[in-house]
């Protein structure tokens, strides 16, 4: 059973944690995105106990009253997001904190984790990977964008003693549109089943495309293919439905 508490527009909803679901609070300036994201995560099995425009509002109304497992922050800027992380880490020491962002650089990711975040996720992440990532964070794992991990690996491999220097990509690589779609999924770390579902092809077909990609790129595995894709600009940024766009659509559908 949930109940509502309103104070201006600062805190939109407070509820009571039910069962063993992960209890979650959402912080963000955009009301439509907050409401839509709430609906998406409820559908994914989370218990949304509070939504708020900023960290101060959540602290004022929820501290001492709600047991939060997770707090998601959708801040308009890196500085504001980091400030919210620091504040929430003090106010809710047992809660896991996830920040949504758009800068996947190793430096920004490192800074984000150092200010108290347990997870740093891309705002353009699709809904199911978002839910899986939040479950991982709730279970005690640290989660960062796959683009960041690939950049770190690529930087390490690019050193003289690394492994990338031994890889020579053919100069006349020609990938079909479907192969580029599969390769884009590989850069996100998607498994064959996920790729199959997203591209609406069978897993067997995915395997055929992956083998063809590896052969054309002259690499030995999926990781090397993903790293080459990122470092050599073989595919554009991953094209997935924006979580904020999905949230807005979910809110308007009610």
From TrEMBL:
Biological process (GO), any one: regulation of DNA-templated transcription
Domain HTH luxR-type: from-to ranges: 168-233
Keywords of this entry: DNA-binding, Phosphoprotein
SUPFAM superfamilies listed in its UniProt record: C-terminal effector domain of the bipartite response regulators, CheY-like
One Pfam family, short name: GerE
4-aspartylphosphate: modified positions: 74
Keyword Nucleotide-binding: no
Residue ranges of every copy of the Response regulatory domain listed in the record: 23-138
MF GO annotations: DNA binding
UniProt protein name: Response regulator
PANTHER family to which the protein is assigned, alphabetical: HTH-TYPE TRANSCRIPTIONAL REGULATOR YHJB-RELATED, NARL SUBFAMILY
Lineage: Bacteria, Pseudomonadati, Pseudomonadota, Alphaproteobacteria, Sphingomonadales
Cytoplasm found in the keyword field: no
């Amino acid at each position: 059973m949930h109940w509502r508490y309103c104070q201006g527009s600062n805190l939109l909803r407070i509820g009571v944690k039910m069962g063993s679901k992960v209890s979650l609070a959402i912080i963000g300036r955009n009301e439509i995105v907050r409401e839509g994201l709430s609906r998406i995560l409820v559908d994914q099995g989370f218990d949304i106990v509070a939504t708020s425009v900023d960290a101060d509002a959540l602290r004022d109304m929820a501290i001492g009253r709600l047991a939060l497992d997770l707090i998601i922050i959708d801040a308009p800027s890196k500085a504001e997001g980091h400030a919210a992380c620091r504040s929430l880490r003090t106010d809710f020491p047992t809660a896991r904190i996830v920040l949504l962002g758009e800068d996947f650089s190793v430096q920004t990711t490192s800074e984000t984790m150092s200010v108290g975040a347990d997870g740093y996720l891309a705002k353009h992440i699709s809904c199911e990977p978002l839910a899986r990532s939040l479950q991982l964070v709730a279970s005690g794992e640290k989660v960062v964008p796959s683009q960041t991990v690939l950049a770190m690996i690529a930087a390490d491999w690019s050193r003289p003693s690394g492994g990338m220097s031994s890889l020579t990509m053919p100069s006349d690589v020609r990938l079909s549109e479907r192969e580029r779609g599969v390769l884009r999924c590989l850069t996100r770390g998607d498994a064959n089943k996920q790729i199959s579902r997203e591209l609406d092809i069978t897993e067997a077909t995915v395997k055929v495309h992956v083998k063809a990609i590896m052969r054309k790129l002259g690499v030995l595995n999926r990781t090397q293919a993903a790293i080459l894709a990122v470092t050599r600009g073989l595919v554009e940024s991953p094209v997935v439905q924006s979580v904020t766009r999905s949230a807005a659509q979910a809110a308007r559908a009610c």
